[in-house]
């Protein structure tokens, strides 16, 4: 399947919007179908695994514990922060076992490394960044992955923060990001640009349905700055009581959020939420 390159204004998406079309193998479920006009219900899990090997929160156990959580909770969508490249296929294999007979999309985007102009690396030499797992209806459904580097970065931090989105069956734009932790004003600017510019641009160019974002935004509610100030009107949001959030555009209702223990394997709990997608919206999320 040929790759397709979409051109965006450089000031809007900055370094490197990457779009990759790829077909990927099997495994998954979901709750109800938009074919009948009924709402669609999904379960979304956000995880920050602190698995670079370089941070003080590294334990070497977070991927194994994440595997246990995926088996126990059977989420339909998983967003992953602070991971190494090889963590995605490892967790994908687990995700496939809890969604047998479905087709799975697994995506990874490395954070940039400003000094080298290449990727940030984990201690084991693998690329370090963010990932996403989702399932689709059939193996031959086209999947398009979008990713890029945020235009605003903390120039004192060599790591350049990235974002990643997957167009799921043309009915849902599922995204993740890990925002700057060295300056709240930087993370707020990254959050605002992602929600105000990048996601609307992607949705407009692809005709996809509503957008769903999970990630460690390094911003809190009821703080200065407040994470809610970067969300446009009509967006809904849940959090883990700290810096991990799940945000949704209009057409999606978030409810029933729950923190999931990671048994000390990382410094963040898992954030699990129920996602209700309005069945009257255009597009067809996975059934």
TrEMBL record:
Organism: Micromonospora jinlongensis
Recorded coiled-coil stretches: none
Protein name: Endonuclease/exonuclease/phosphatase family metal-dependent hydrolase
Residues in the signal sequence: 1-30
Endonuclease/exonuclease/phosphatase domain sequence ranges: 66-268
Source taxonomy: Bacteria, Bacillati, Actinomycetota, Actinomycetes, Micromonosporales
Gene Ontology MF term list: endonuclease activity; exonuclease activity
Lineage top rank: taxon: Bacteria
Keywords, alphabetical: Endonuclease, Exonuclease, Hydrolase, Nuclease, Signal
């Amino acid at each position: 399947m040929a790759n397709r390159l979409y051109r965006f204004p450089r000031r809007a998406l900055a370094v490197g919007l990457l779009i990759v079309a790829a077909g990927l193998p099997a495994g998954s479920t979901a709750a109800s179908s938009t074919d009948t006009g009924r709402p669609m219900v999904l379960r979304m899990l956000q995880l920050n695994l602190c698995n670079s090997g370089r941070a003080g929160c590294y334990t070497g156990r977070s991927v194994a514990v994440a595997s246990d959580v995926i088996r126990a909770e059977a989420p339909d969508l998983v967003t992953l922060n602070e991971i190494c490249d090889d963590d995605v296929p490892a967790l994908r294999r687990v995700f496939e076992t809890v969604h047998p007979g479905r087709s799975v999309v697994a995506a990874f985007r490395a954070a940039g490394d400003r000094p080298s102009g290449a990727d940030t690396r984990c201690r084991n030499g693998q690329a370090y960044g963010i990932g996403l797992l989702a399932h689709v209806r059939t193996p031959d459904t086209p999947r398009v992955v979008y990713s890029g580097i945020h235009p605003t970065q903390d120039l004192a931090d060599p790591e350049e923060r990235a974002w990643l989105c997957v167009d799921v069956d043309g009915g849902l734009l599922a995204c993740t990001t890990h925002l700057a932790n060295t300056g709240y004003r930087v993370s707020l600017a990254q959050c605002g640009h992602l929600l105000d510019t990048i996601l609307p641009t992607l949705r407009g160019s692809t005709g996809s349905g509503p957008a769903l974002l999970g990630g460690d935004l390094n911003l809190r509610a009821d703080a200065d700055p407040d994470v809610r100030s970067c969300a446009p009107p009509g967006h809904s949001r849940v959090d883990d009581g700290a810096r991990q959030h799940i945000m949704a555009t209009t057409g999606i209702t978030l409810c029933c959020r729950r923190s999931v223990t990671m048994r000390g394997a990382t410094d963040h709990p898992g954030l699990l939420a129920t996602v209700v997608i309005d069945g009257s919206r255009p597009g067809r999320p996975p059934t």
